[in-house]
Amino acid sequence: MADKTFRVDVVSPDHMLYSGDATFLRAQTTDGEVGILASHAPIFAELAAGGCVVVTEADGSKLAIAAQGGFLSVNGDDVKVLAESAQLAHEIDIAVEREALEASEEGTVEYLTARSRIRAVEAVN
């Protein structure tokens, strides 16, 4: 029996990063990490700085997105991730991001962006 699916849209101000059906979504929010399944109770949460979003697609494959700032909205079987900026894990050069993390001061925008991107890559590897 296949898991029940729900619709996920991940957008940033300049483009749609992902739109598809998922069986599970995991995201770091300012209140902690949340996991979303189909028919989840409605929530609205702020995405944590330096976090990532991992989508388990209907076919079982995983997609990770480095999301810097924004919100997660769950309403019925419709989930929206509205990120201030975001990047798909497969587009990230992890060696460059590790160097950026080492070179930046903890808590800065550069540090949090690099940490977010590293988390996204590691989530699918």
TrEMBL record:
<dbReference type="InterPro" id="IPR020546">
    <property type="entry name" value="ATP_synth_F1_dsu/esu_N"/>
</dbReference>
<comment type="function">
    <text>Produces ATP from ADP in the presence of a proton gradient across the membrane.</text>
</comment>
<keyword id="KW-0813">Transport</keyword>
<keyword id="KW-0472">Membrane</keyword>
<dbReference type="InterPro" id="IPR036771">
    <property type="entry name" value="ATPsynth_dsu/esu_N"/>
</dbReference>
<comment type="similarity">
    <text>Belongs to the ATPase epsilon chain family.</text>
</comment>
<dbReference type="Pfam" id="PF02823">
    <property type="entry name" value="ATP-synt_DE_N"/>
</dbReference>
<keyword id="KW-0066">ATP synthesis</keyword>
<keyword id="KW-0139">CF(1)</keyword>
<dbReference type="InterPro" id="IPR001469">
    <property type="entry name" value="ATP_synth_F1_dsu/esu"/>
</dbReference>
<keyword id="KW-0375">Hydrogen ion transport</keyword>
<feature type="domain" description="ATP synthase F1 complex delta/epsilon subunit N-terminal">
    <location>
        <begin position="6"/>
        <end position="86"/>
    </location>
</feature>
<comment type="subunit">
    <text>F-type ATPases have 2 components, CF(1) - the catalytic core - and CF(0) - the membrane proton channel. CF(1) has five subunits: alpha(3), beta(3), gamma(1), delta(1), epsilon(1). CF(0) has three main subunits: a, b and c.</text>
</comment>
<keyword id="KW-0406">Ion transport</keyword>
<protein>
    <recommendedName>
        <fullName>ATP synthase epsilon chain</fullName>
    </recommendedName>
</protein>
<keyword id="KW-1003">Cell membrane</keyword>
